[in-house]
């Protein structure tokens, strides 16, 4: 039997309203990132490197975009796990609402079944909107050595960067002995420049989590497991694990745009991708990108299969994007299959998949007013 065998539960149920229309038909975890990846790739990669056998994805709604990307988990080597792999449980939001009407059902049935069948000693529990490259092996060792009930991951960040719109964001307050003494909402944070922000990632024993589930069920407390652990955190001994790498909290259009733009900064890109754990993703073979002799590209991340006749500056282009002659793309994120017509101009914008911008049309946002165009839209009138 593998010593300290670990499983994982990822809750893809985060409130995505503040990222509409990009999240109309996909959870935050399925959002494209840095012209090649999806946000869920970072969690799955970390789990793969930590030799985690079984991963459960609890998805808020249909999960079609997650199924399409993850499939059997082959890209992260989960398809080869013996008595393991990736297990998906969709429509969590519907189940939560339905359960309130039918409280004879066990809300935690699938959670408990997964934990028991995993035959694991420990479980990593996480939300889905924190983008980071976590060393779960180190976290596991840190937890076991501490002897505490729960290990929580936190990062010291500027107080101004804590998500102001999400009521579930938590700031941690420690005493002089690094013991957790308080969890605060953004509105309660102290008047300091830097705070310890929870990354909504936890490491506990499977036995502890099952006991916590049984207690919650007895008290009619029905929450996703990351929220459940957070709610009960101060009732148990807590070990704090500091993450010092690059991290972004994808909880708004602005934070999503900013995280992508951060990747144009060499230091941020290296901090996220060039670690001992390269980020894995679904392989998609494609033709090379074509740069016309008259094209101009500066400080950009360009995926495969892109065709560029015009100008691209300080931007990220996903696969199969076309930028026609005399078109200009600046300070923008252009997702897969978008077409920028001849003479069009795009600035401070996010264009979702398969958007078509007609020739001569302008989409002109500002740093504090990012223009977002929904999937499959055809833009024939300029937007300012």
From TrEMBL:
Organism: Facklamia lactis
Domain spans labelled Nucleotidyl transferase: 19-264
SUPFAM superfamilies according to UniProt: Nucleotide-diphospho-sugar transferases (SSF53448), Trimeric LpxA-like enzymes (SSF51161)
Keyword list, A-Z: Glycogen biosynthesis, Nucleotidyltransferase, Transferase
Domain Glucose-1-phosphate adenylyltransferase/Bifunctional protein GlmU-like C-terminal hexapeptide: 293-363
Signal sequence interval, chain numbering: none
Domain of life according to the entry: Bacteria
Lineage: Bacteria, Bacillati, Bacillota, Bacilli, Lactobacillales
Transmembrane annotation, as ranges: none
First-level EC class: transferase
Catalytic activity, EC: 2.7.7.27
Family: Belongs to the bacterial/plant glucose-1-phosphate adenylyltransferase family.
GO molecular function: glucose-1-phosphate adenylyltransferase activity
UniProt-recorded name of the protein: Glucose-1-phosphate adenylyltransferase subunit GlgD
